[in-house]
Amino acid sequence: MFTEICLFMKVVLRLCRFCKLSFIFLFAIVISGNLMAKDALLLKFDTRQLSPGKIELKLEFDSPPSVPTAFVLKNPDRILIDMWGVENGTSNSNYSLGLKSLRSVDLVQVKGRLRLVANLNRLTNYSSYAEGKNLFIILDQNQQLSQAPIAVGSDIQVLSNQGMASITNAPVEKRTKVQGIDFERAENGIGRIKIKLSDSRSGTQVSEEGHNVVVNLTGAVLSAGLNKRLDVQDFDTPVMFIDTFSQGQNTGILIKPSAKPYKFKSYQVGEELIVDFWPARKNRHSAKSSGVRNKSPSIQKQFTGEKIDLNFQNVKIRSVLQIISEVAQKNLVVDDSVSGSITLRLKNVPWDQALDLVLKTRGLDKRLVGNVLLIAPAAKLAERERLELEGQKQIEELLPIETEFIQINYRKSSEMKARLEEASLVSKRGFVLADDATNVLMVRETEKQLAVIRHTLAKFDVAVSQIMIEAKLVVATSDVTKDLGVRWGLGYGATGKYSVNGAGAGTLGAAPLAVDLGVSAKSAIRLGYIGSNGFKLSAEISALSTTGDAEVVSQPKIITTNGQPAEIQSGQQLPYIVVEDGASTVQFKDVVLSLKVTPQIAPGDLIALELELTQDSIGKTLPNGEVSINKNSLKTSVIVKDGDTIVLGGVYRNEKVNKYAKTPVLGDLPLVGALFRQSRKAETKAELLIFITPKLIRKSLSRN
Q1: What are residue 181's DSSP bridge partners?
Q2: 169-183, 525-539, 577-591: which has the highest mean pLDDT?
Q3: 339 lies in the same domain as 232
Q4: Residue in 266, 218, 208, 260 with CA at minimum distance from that of residue 239
Q5: How does the average pLDDT of the chain come out, rounded?
Q6: 578 plus 637 within the same structural domain
């Protein structure tokens, strides 16, 4: 059209070159060109109440308008209708109505189109039709919300004076056919129903009716053999049965879900309508607490955008992208290679999910840079990013190398060097040199990488918490051990109602104990737990030691850092002779009581202890003169609070005494010799008890 106008202007200029009326002709042509550039001009906007809850919006143009597009927005509820190539010729752009279902109507001129925004009090059903130069929009609050394409053109047949029309865009012999209905089990237990249509002209509506979901296909006919039931229970999805049936000129599909909670969504891309069903989770937190992890949230994308309704047939994909960007309030940049049309029907779908579906159908991808949304073919974006990475690598290879000396305070420099190399923080051009004598790292890297290394070292080179391990090694007689064990068992509990007096002064009272070390334990070494009331325990042991019933063999205290083992040994070395090549040498065997503790600080002032106890004792003498060594060992892991005590028991030491005395000569006489002899047998059984108390060393205490 623009080319024809230019040619016409050239002809008129030649004819009017010597004419004084040339300016008038040119002015008329320019005016006519401007008028021809527009599709239609809105002349009048009016509303009227058809019935209670039913409102008619009438738009009058100077010429028949182009096919509008419409979509629904929620929060707040709005219906948006875009009329492309239309200008607002009225003097007003805002109409305050104050009706029950419709508050106001805004007319907004936006980039080559006129947008009508119906501000609703709540979502209502709407329909629209065109008649000559008029466009009618009907808002019906008495019906459920549904959408249908706006009817326009000469195919509309007027049924009454009110202008209600039926859409006859396709002749009967060219009605939309349902060519196939397929079902598949998608990932994460999603039941997917695919409805293949011959074209995208039929109106579709998916709604939940009772315990079923019904798909209504307006003006669609079933192909032969599709009027049947599909049993899909074996797929283990929320869908059980799919029934297909005809309703006059329309087709219906009844979907029977299971009794379990479910959710569903529907969307149409081209000639394929897809309905997805998936299990509904009642409570996200309960699923986590039960230990059952649902893979769906971690694999599927989480869409959080504002929900919209889109219903387009053969609309340009650039127009769809522009509408979505306006809803998302993002700036939009679209690559020149993005073109073509798309047909889709999305209802109550987040805008970011709608965008994702549109991009996938066309092999496109997006990048969000600040508030700008960039749309381009996926392969083109990937290639562009690859080139950017290669360029960045080339720039990094040209950056200067700097040298920095970093002082390590709490760790060894060699250890920090190993950490950096293990984390691959040192590039091929750089290196790290560690000097343990001065505990300094020499690092040669680029300025950018030096900043990363400094940040990493600051996280690792920190003061490590320390734990003091107090151990008491107590040897007690079997009776005293039994008494202590009974009292520990009765003393368990927070109420402290049980208390048994011992063989000395004082009682243990309410010191809590997790196990009973008392009567007739069968294991060689036993483990118990005493609460933080260590004063009563110390008083009891001191009382027993005073009366001679118990002996404190050792009471060492050692300090170790978090995660580092601490070891206590007490015993002797047993000499033995080794003969090798005719030469005799004396070697020694360790016969010790060894205790190894590895503490690990946990949150909440808890300390995890890895305990390893070994008790050696001298055994029998072998025929070759060597002495055997008996070994008992225990290895366990426990978690205690700061200041609580762990008890290791069951390490026994037996002493047997056989004494024999007699009077010389007389004691050897038969019969009467027994009167001049004396024999005494004694057996002493003592138990070694080990009390371990870990205590955190606070910073305030360490300064003092």
Answers
A1: 195
A2: 577-591
A3: no
A4: 260
A5: 74
A6: yes
Helices (H), 105-237: none
Helical H segments across 553-654, by residue range: none
**Residues 99 and 57 sit within 8 Å (Cβ to Cβ):** no
Taking the C-alpha atoms of residue 439 and residue 409, their distance in angstroms, rounded to an integer, is 7
Give the chain's length: 704
pLDDT in tens, 415-438: 899 989 888 888 888 889 999 899
- Residue 262 sits in the same domain as residue 182: yes
- Its domain, for residue 323, covers 307-376
Q: How far apart, in whole angstroms, are the C-alpha atoms of residue 543 and residue 639?
A: 29
Task: Extract the tokens encoding 24.
Answer: 């008038």
CA 517/CA 406 separation, integer angstroms: 54
Do both 504 and 524 map to the same domain? yes
DSSP-assigned letters across all residues of 321-381: HHHHHHHHT-EEEE-TT---EEEEEEEEEEHHHHHHHHHHHTTEEEEEETTEEEEEEHHHH
User: Letter for the amino acid at 533?
Assistant: N
Q: 170 and 219 in contact (C-beta within 8 Å)?
A: yes
Closest CA to 305 of 356, 259, 266: 356
| Lookup: tokens for 108 | 């907004």
Phi, psi of 137 (to 5 degrees): -125, 125
Cα dist from 251 to 50, 215, 247, whole Å: 31, 8, 6
Helix or strand run (H / E) with residue 489: helix 478-490
Whether 561 and 688 map to the same domain: the answer is yes
Average pLDDT over residues 343-365: 86
Note whether residue 5 is domain-resident. Answer: no
State which H helix or E strand residue 204 sits in: strand 203-209
Are both 628 and 509 inside the same structural domain?
no
The reply to whether 574 and 693 lie within a common domain is yes
Q: Could you tell me if 541 and 562 lie in one domain?
A: no
Residue 513: strand pairing partners: 530
Q: What angle do CA 24, 29, 35 make, to 5 degrees?
A: 130
579 DSSP β-pair partners: 584
- 84-94 burial, b at 16+ Cβ within 10 Å, e below that, comes to bebbbbeeeee
* Confidence at residue 193, expressed as pLDDT on a 0 to 100 scale: 92
Q: Do 213 and 257 contact (CB within 8 A), yes or no? A: yes
* Helices first, then strands: H and E counts in the chain: 12, 40
Containing 31, the helix (H) or strand (E) segment is helix 22-37
pLDDT average, residue stretch 604-620? 85
Helix (H, G, I), strand (E, B) or coil at 296: helix
